[in-house]
Amino acid sequence: MRGQDMKILITHLIAVTLSLMPSLTQAAGDKDFIVFFQTNSATIDSNGRDTLNSFVGFYTSHQLLCVSVMGHTDAAGSDRYNLRLSEQRVKAVATYIGDKGVPSNQIRLGWKGEQTPIVRAIAEEPFNRRVTLAPIDDPVACPGSKASTGPVVIYDYRDFFAYFAHDSATLDTDARDELDQYAEFHKGCQFIGILLTAHADTSGPSRYNLKLSQRRAQAVKNYLTTKGIAAETIRMKWEGERHPALTTQGEVREPLNRRVSIEWIGDCQEADAP
Questions:
Q1: Which residues are registered as beta bridge partners of 237?
Q2: Which pLDDT band holds residue 141 (cuts at 50, 70, 90)?
Q3: Do the domains 160-265 and 3-157 match in fold?
Q4: CA 214 to chain centre
Q5: How far is residue 108's CA from residue 106's CA, in Å, rounded to a whole number?
Q6: Secondary structure of residue 178 in the 3-state scheme
Q7: Per-domain residue ranges for the chain?
Q8: In this predicted model, which residue has the larger pLDDT, 192 or 273?
Q9: Residue 183: alpha-carbon gap to chain centroid
Q10: Are 44 and 52 a contacting pair, CB within 8 Å?
Q11: Looking at the predicted structure, is the pLDDT value of residue 2 above 70?
Q12: Widest CA span of the chain, in angstroms?
């Protein structure tokens, strides 16, 4: 079989598989609904709309308290891009079900980019390009539904990372945007504190990289304090080259390893309104 014919056959098989997804996913469980997307797209196709229409019927008939809407991507493209793409997919789904009558204050949004694939072996895997809707009838898991006026972003379904350029501790636009999102999330919770863990890639001497990761942690702390987070609640540690996100051989300038992660200490309890 010629390469072009093989490509056409594979494309056809994927299309047939995706056309069956609504019935397959709904048969797998009464409460989980999955919408699949084309590559590099946040547009809901006819199969996705069918799934969401079925979800809306299920949700309203069961009078549930809220729904978790979680977005994912495949591994094609950069980590940052995929995180934003999964966010776009989630918000497209939230808008659709909101227009169909699901109260917006009962919608919990989260996105994980490429972090939790169904299939790991293939970068452009259709099963990984998805949004999962999980209806919830537990009041403990749906705090603030009555008080909120719009969808609630539940960032505890994702991690926060500030990434850095090579040999730099300067926050670029993407890093500041990520920290701004964390600061908004932080405002809605009453955490005991947060922990910043800073890293470097393996290019350069290990002793230098340890100090570089320290400077990165300090840069993130300084920025977060300008957003209203008390300095005394922020802990820092720096690992240098230790514990890379992606293991490399030799001195490699790996962007995913030049990072500061943010972990919060304690559970998210809704802060009292001012």
A1: 197
A2: low
A3: yes
A4: 26
A5: 7
A6: helix
A7: 3-157, 160-265
A8: 192
A9: 16
A10: yes
A11: no
A12: 68
Fold of 3-157: 60s Ribosomal Protein L30; Chain: A; (3.30.1330)
What's the N-to-C CA distance of the chain in angstroms?
68
pTM more than 0.70: no
Scan for tokens 């659709």, then name that residue: 96
CB atoms near residue 237 (< 10 Å): 11
| pLDDT of 124 higher than 70 | yes
| CB atoms closer than 10 angstroms to residue 209 | 24
Question: What percentage of residues in the chain have a pLDDT greater than 90?
Answer: 42
H helix or E strand, kind and range, residue 16: helix 3-28
Q: Does domain 160-265 have CATH number 3.30.1330.60?
A: yes
User: pLDDT tens-digit profile of 202-247?
Assistant: 999 999 999 999 999 999 999 999 999 999 999 999 999 998 888 8
DSSP letter at 65 equals S
What backbone phi and psi angles, to 5 degrees, belong to 258?
Answer: -90, 85
